[in-house]
Amino acid sequence: MNLKQAQYVKTIAECGSITAAAKKLFVSQPSLSQMLRQIEQEIGLPIFDRSTSPLRLTYAGEKYLYAAERILAANSELESQLKEIKQEHAGRLRLGISVTRAMQVMPLVLPIFVPMYPNVNLELTESGSATLEELLQSGSIDLALAALESTSTNLAYELIEKENVGILAGRDSATAKRFRSGKAISLTDTEGDSYVCLTKGHSSRVVQDKLFRRYGFAPHVLLETDSLEVGRRVAVEAGACMVLSDIYVDDYVHQHRGEFFKLKDYENYRHFYACYRKDEFIPMYIRDFIRITTRVLSQHRKFPD
């Protein structure tokens, strides 16, 4: 059964005659009669009892009409959903973001975004920046909010927030005792202190490994963790160092004996971007999600305790 057959049989049943149905459907009576005969030949049963006036459905016709109405209703619902998607009021947003950034971004963005787009289904993937870029390239997510270098030619990057990478040091570390907080230091100035490292895949780990290779630096690793929050707390409390973005230097760091030092010999190119594929249509709700994120982060610079 196709949509035309379903609509024609439904109209004949409602009108009670082929002639009246043909007028309502703006088709000729002979062509409508021929189509009905073709349907009955295909199913091998009559749909209407032609000995009555108005026409009456046979038992097989009742079953056929029931299925026809379900098909037409499903098609109508699909058309409405597609219309909403075309108008960009409904859809699906597959968002990739790190756990740490999700803690910062989602509580601020969702209270604004959800009332604007209640019919957009949000699917969250939490992972490190390097993994998120791979997922975006493969089409597994629609939008990545991540600390990346804007180097891929098939991806579009919209800057949300600039990050300055430096060294977080607990006050019991030799580095914190030797230098004034906020001073620009070299990585080699931290020699002798232990380091807390994030696991591979995190943007901070990418920067850290690049710096370590540049200076042939191989410090003692106190802890390797997948959680930035665990890492920075351990570094502060245990008197260790950690390569970290300045966006995570907040009241917790200052109140718990942590110091942050700029890197005087490193220019960071990995900033916080909204990233999506250039060859994909970007609906308005994704653009608004990016816009809201950019705005709220500029208003809430500090990472939450």
Automatic annotation (TrEMBL):
What Pfam families would the database entry show?
HTH_1 (PF00126), LysR_substrate (PF03466)
Q: Which UniProt keywords apply?
A: DNA-binding, Transcription, Transcription regulation
Q: Which GO terms describe its molecular function?
A: DNA binding; DNA-binding transcription factor activity
Coiled coil: which residue ranges? none
Domain HTH lysR-type, by residue range, is 1-58
For the keyword Nuclease, the answer is no
Q: Name one GO cellular component term.
A: cytosol
Family matches, as InterPro entries: HTH-type_LysR_regulators (IPR050950), LysR_HTH_N (IPR000847), LysR_subst-bd (IPR005119), WH-like_DNA-bd_sf (IPR036388), WH_DNA-bd_sf (IPR036390)
Q: Which family does it belong to?
A: Belongs to the LysR transcriptional regulatory family.
- What is the name attached to this protein's record? LysR family transcriptional regulator
In its UniProt entry, the species of origin is given as Candidatus Faecousia excrementigallinarum
